[in-house]
């Protein structure tokens, strides 16, 4: 992508109406546009990051035999009255509206009830089980406070997955497989070091649900950690958990975290409420066992910004960066050689953001730092004379010099 063609522009200052660092930087660098508090649009740069996060999550969900689908945002009221969750007292984030004929509809804040209704159509026999399905979907929630930028949206992207099983044992095995898959996701997303499987409030059939909590100052949760024993407990269940886990409160360290994922074991509770049944080997009707598993895609993006950005701007890891490198051309001959390098790398499938604008070097370098690609390559007249070009790591700020051929080899191998 040539920067001269990129319609978004960086701005010199952070937006004044935005308190969260993640949104400030993403807006300033041209990755997102704020529509209103808690509602953001993603520009081509922002979309590339989201798609990279989704690709990782998609690969890991496919690897545990889940099948991707996409469900509607508009939902029928009747589904929710089956479980009592149409109630605004029980669910305080509902956006609701009505059709022209007066029929009430809700905007999906989760798809637990709708997925059961969908699966009821297909589930007949134990031979149809297990089933696991997932989607990347825009959830709509009328959140009271939306002050954490893209980490708490009123509209946000969630990966939600649902699994259905014939037996409790089968669900338990799958639940563990999901935990392992989630760990692989956070590992590939670069936040595994600081992400903990955390005991949190219930589960219908289990005492606790499990959250994936990432240590992050900008988060909204508090977690008690035992790093040695690798135990993490959400503040909300700390008293229960201490008893259950046999640890002493004084051994635990209180840390600020962001919830990047959440998984629930529903047992047969939801199936009983909504009559999700199948014929067993014994010829009898049985309620299915169900689990529900979420990852906050846009929240993860915000957490990554918060954790890795520095005073100069965004810092992306290679796995999710929109482009692998920002190629900066300086001078006339520099421009010609940069054109050539851009063509070579593009042909090899390397993602390059090519700063071909007629701007001063200082402006280009500052933008490269703000936009945060893992590598910056500078092709200047001076470099051509010396035969050495600068390769700068955004993460460490270190610069090494390489010949033209070495640069090509660095990115293509
Ligand atoms: P929270 O406790 O942060 O309000 P939740 O428990 O209501 O979240 P879930 O319904 O479990 O969230 O949703 C699954 C995942 O979606 C969460 O783990 C989180 O990563 C993400 N998520 C939830 N609400 C939001 C939001 N308003 N904006 C962005 N991501 C969110
Ligand atoms: Mg949660």
From TrEMBL:
<dbReference type="GO" id="GO:0004827">
    <property type="term" value="F:proline-tRNA ligase activity"/>
</dbReference>
<keyword id="KW-0067">ATP-binding</keyword>
<dbReference type="InterPro" id="IPR002316">
    <property type="entry name" value="Pro-tRNA-ligase_IIa"/>
</dbReference>
<protein>
    <recommendedName>
        <fullName>Proline--tRNA ligase</fullName>
        <ecNumber>6.1.1.15</ecNumber>
    </recommendedName>
</protein>
<dbReference type="InterPro" id="IPR006195">
    <property type="entry name" value="aa-tRNA-synth_II"/>
</dbReference>
<dbReference type="InterPro" id="IPR004154">
    <property type="entry name" value="Anticodon-bd"/>
</dbReference>
<dbReference type="GO" id="GO:0005524">
    <property type="term" value="F:ATP binding"/>
</dbReference>
<dbReference type="InterPro" id="IPR044140">
    <property type="entry name" value="ProRS_anticodon_short"/>
</dbReference>
<dbReference type="Pfam" id="PF03129">
    <property type="entry name" value="HGTP_anticodon"/>
</dbReference>
<dbReference type="Pfam" id="PF00587">
    <property type="entry name" value="tRNA-synt_2b"/>
</dbReference>
<dbReference type="InterPro" id="IPR050062">
    <property type="entry name" value="Pro-tRNA_synthetase"/>
</dbReference>
<dbReference type="InterPro" id="IPR002314">
    <property type="entry name" value="aa-tRNA-synt_IIb"/>
</dbReference>
<dbReference type="InterPro" id="IPR045864">
    <property type="entry name" value="aa-tRNA-synth_II/BPL/LPL"/>
</dbReference>
<dbReference type="GO" id="GO:0006433">
    <property type="term" value="P:prolyl-tRNA aminoacylation"/>
</dbReference>
<keyword id="KW-0648">Protein biosynthesis</keyword>
<dbReference type="GO" id="GO:0005829">
    <property type="term" value="C:cytosol"/>
</dbReference>
<keyword id="KW-0030">Aminoacyl-tRNA synthetase</keyword>
<feature type="domain" description="Aminoacyl-transfer RNA synthetases class-II family profile">
    <location>
        <begin position="38"/>
        <end position="322"/>
    </location>
</feature>
<keyword id="KW-0436">Ligase</keyword>
<dbReference type="InterPro" id="IPR036621">
    <property type="entry name" value="Anticodon-bd_dom_sf"/>
</dbReference>
<keyword id="KW-0547">Nucleotide-binding</keyword>
């Amino acid at each position: 992508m040539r920067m001269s063609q990129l319609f978004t522009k960086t701005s010199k200052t952070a937006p004044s109406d935005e308190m969260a660092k993640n949104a400030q930087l993403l807006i300033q660098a041209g990755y997102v546009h704020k529509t209103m508090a808690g509602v953001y649009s993603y520009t081509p740069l922002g979309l590339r990051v989201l798609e990279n996060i989704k690709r990782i999550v998609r690969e890991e969900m496919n690897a545990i035999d889940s099948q991707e689908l996409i469900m509607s945002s508009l939902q029928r009221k009747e589904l929710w009255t089956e479980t009592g969750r149409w109630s605004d007292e029980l669910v305080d984030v509902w956006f609701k509206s009505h059709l022209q004929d007066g029929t009430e509809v809700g905007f999906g804040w989760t798809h637990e009830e709708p997925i059961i209704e969908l699966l009821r159509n297909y589930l007949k026999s134990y031979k149809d089980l297990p089933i696991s399905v997932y989607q990347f979907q825009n959830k709509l929630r009328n959140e009271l406070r939306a002050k954490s930028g893209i980490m708490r949206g009123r509209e946000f992207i969630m990966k939600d997955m649902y699994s259905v099983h014939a037996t409790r044992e089968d669900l338990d095995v799958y639940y563990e497989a999901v935990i392992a898959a989630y760990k692989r996701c956070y590992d590939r997303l670069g936040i595994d070091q600081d992400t903990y499987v955390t005991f949190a409030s219930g589960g219908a059939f289990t005492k606790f649900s499990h959250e994936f909590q990432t240590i992050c100052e900008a988060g909204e949760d508090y977690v008690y950690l035992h790093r040695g024993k690798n135990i993490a407990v959400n503040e909300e269940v700390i008293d229960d958990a201490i008893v259950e886990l046999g640890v002493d409160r004084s051994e635990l360290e209180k840390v600020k975290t962001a919830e990047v994922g959440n998984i629930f074991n529903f047992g047969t509770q939801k199936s009983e409420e909504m009559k999700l049944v199948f014929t067993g080997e014994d010829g009898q009707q049985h309620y299915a066992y169900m689990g529900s598993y979420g990852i906050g895609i846009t929240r993860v993006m915000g957490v990554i910004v918060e954790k890795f950005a520095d005073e100069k701007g965004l810092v992306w890891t290679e796995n999710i960066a929109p482009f692998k490198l920002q190629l900066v051309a300086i001078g006339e001959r520099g421009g010609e050689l940069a054109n050539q390098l851009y063509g070579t790398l593009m042909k090899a499938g390397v993602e390059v953001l090519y700063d071909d604008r007629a701007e001063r070097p200082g402006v280009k370098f500052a933008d490269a730092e703000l936009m945060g690609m893992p590598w910056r390559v500078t092709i200047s007249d001076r470099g051509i004379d010396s035969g050495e070009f600068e390769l700068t790591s955004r993460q460490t700020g270190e610069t090494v010099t390489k010949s033209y051929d070495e640069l090509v080899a660095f990115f293509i191998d």
